[in-house]
Specification:
mainly alpha
Length: 66
């Protein structure tokens, strides 16, 4: 399961949980931890892609060593 799928599953589970947990702590949890997730997942994906590019270059460079 990848990061985006996991975040979607968490979102679905949160919506189900919200039907039963409707107090100030639930709202605080949502604002503090869940609302920032889409942006964090997006940025994390971009950084992971950059790392993949760097690692490919490193492997290629190391293969060319005598």
């Amino acid at each position: 399961m990848n990061l985006i799928q996991t975040a979607r599953e968490l979102s679905e589970q949160w919506h189900a949980t919200k039907a039963h947990w409707r107090d100030a702590k639930a709202l605080e949890f949502e604002k503090r931890y869940l609302e920032p997730l889409p942006g964090l997942v997006s940025r994390t994906g971009a950084v992971m892609n950059e790392l993949e590019t760097i690692l490919k270059k490193i492997r290629k460079d190391c293969e060319q060593l005598p």
